[in-house]
Amino acid sequence: MQLIIVESPTKARTLSRFLGKDYTIEATMGHIKDLPKSQLGIDVAKNFKPEYVFIEKRAAVVGKIKKVAKSASKIYLATDPDREGEAISYHVKEILGDGKTTRIVFHEITKEAVEEAIAKPRDIDKNLVDAQIGRRVLDRLVGYKLSPLLWKKVRRGLSAGRVQTVAVRLIVEREREIEKFKPEEYWEISCEVKPKKAKNKVFLVGFVGTPEGKIEVKNKDDAAKIVSHLKKSSYEVFDVRKREVRKNPYPPFTTSTMSQAGARLFGWSAKRTMSIAQRLYERGFITYHRTDSAYVSASALAKVRELIGTDFGKDYLPPSPRFYKVTSKVAQEAHEAIRPTDLSKKSDDIKSKKYGSDAKLLYDLIYRRFVASQMTASVYDETTIDVYAKNGETYLLRASGQVIKFDGWRKVIPAKKDAEAVSVLPAVVKGETLSLIKVDSEQKFTEPKARYNEASLIKTLEQLGIGRPSTYAPIITTIQIRNYVEKEEGKFMPTPIGVAVNDFLMEHFPEVFDYQFTAEMESDLDKVADGKNKWEESIKKFWKPFEKKLTSTENHSKRVKIEVEKLGLVCPKCKKGELVVRIGRFGKF
């Protein structure tokens, strides 16, 4: 008997479907060791040595694995292909010994991929384990040391996280930008015109300025003068420009772009999207879902190109495969993009009763995105018409329109009706006179940047080089659980307590929660994973200034006063006081 050890029972069941009776598959139910809950668990004096302990609720699981392992001829550690998975395998190997234990890695749970992995076992990648240890130690030091300080200086029961605090900072700073923003008035002016010889060919031209340059219309009086001039003007086509526009497909999904799409299209939280993706991965439908790579294997490229040629025809198949550059600042390990494992399985094969309707939706999204990523560009004919309005002075107006010439990848991912909707313009020539139908003007005001939603927050964190595929969803979940931020119409707003904690930490620990420094720490851990850095060196770089700041802040900082959220309502009991919102262990009350 050969033993395969994975994390989850679902993954174990999927493997057992195609591996046969020669294999026994056991699940660890996640990590079996961690730092202790009741103490720091890090010996700072001994080069930050972590003191891992067994997780109590895993005792029965560990006991069973030990028992089964005794009668196994070979033991394969088949946990997930990332740092967390490597750390789980490392701790399992510690309890089972070296003798018959090897590590296997696969990025999709299919018979072919698993058999290939079994044929090519390897040792535990200690660099990946060290990167996981480094992150765990770093996060424990921040949380364990800062939380008591927050209890003392802000409010009891608070906690701080290294990356979560940076996410809260982004949200607080955006809110302050919005509060400081002063709207500026401007006016948009447009004319409905038509060729004199053509009926029913009305089109809209927007006011640009004069032939010499753009004019910004800032108030009602200026707008009225221009409108008056335009009403008395004669109109003539000054220029017609045509060009072909090609729009290439999007790359296949990474964790970040998939989470953003889930939020944008379905209103899902990152946690929900990742949970659905986990189910699809563990049941063998998609490749590993924690990845920041756009890489696709040669065999998968060959299969998708064959499908495109067969199902859509040669016009939809580029001469050679498309290769995408990684947009993330640092892509981790040798992962693939998120894609279907078997292109013959369509979304209709994901039975809603068995897997849930959400699984079907996400699978369809992943499937279409992957197929489209290897198709030809969509092609548009774009026309720009410049019109002169003459009445002593000459004003310039402009219209742009686009007509799809060839749908290409849009065959698989059709544009939303309003997403690429551009007016279709009539055929006109330079020098042609036009008739004015009417002139419109509309008052508008500049708007501040929008509050972050889940999609834009993840995108910003990724652009800053903060967080990794495995951390986006936990970051967003944690800052809400801690009541540091809340959602209003799907957008994040900081709570008074979130503002207080942010301001306290930014006043006393600006370097620790600096965007660039946080990104550098993430990059340092990536270098540990690549074998280029020692995790202890990364922690030392962080610890010395952090420890110094801890001491001075504890001794010299003042207690923070938290802004009270007022409801604007009179107390129904005393009829005098004003009702306010308090935050307790379970949220607002």
Can you give a write-up of this model?
By secondary structure, this protein is an alpha+beta fold. The protein has four domains: about 1-125, Rossmann fold, CATH 3.40.50.140; about 150-180 and about 450-565, Topoisomerase I, domain 2 (Orthogonal Bundle); about 185-250 and about 380-445, Topoisomerase I, domain 3, CATH 2.70.20.10; about 255-375, Topoisomerase I, domain 4. It has 17 helices and 21 strands. A six-stranded antiparallel barrel has the order 9-10-14-13-12-15. A four-stranded parallel β-sheet has the order 2-1-7-8, sandwiched between helices. It is globular, with a radius of gyration of 30 Å. The two termini are about 60 Å apart. The model has no long low-confidence stretch (mean pLDDT about 90).
List the helices and strands and how they pair.
Blueprint: E1 2-6, H1 9-19, E2 23-27, E3 33-34, E4 42-43, E5 49-50, E6 53-54, H2 59-70, E7 74-77, H3 83-96, E8 101-103, H4 111-119, H5 126-153, H6 162-180, E9 185-195, E10 203-210, E11 213-214, H7 220-231, E12 234-247, H8 255-266, H9 270-282, H10 298-311, H11 352-355, H12 357-373, E13 378-391, E14 393-406, E15 433-445, H13 454-464, H14 472-481, E16 485-488, E17 491-494, H15 496-508, H16 515-529, H17 535-556, E18 565-570, E19 578-581, E20 583-584, E21 587-588
Parallel strand pairs: 1-2, 1-7, 7-8
Antiparallel strand pairs: 3-6, 4-5, 9-10, 9-15, 10-11, 10-14, 12-13, 12-15, 13-14, 16-17, 18-19, 20-21
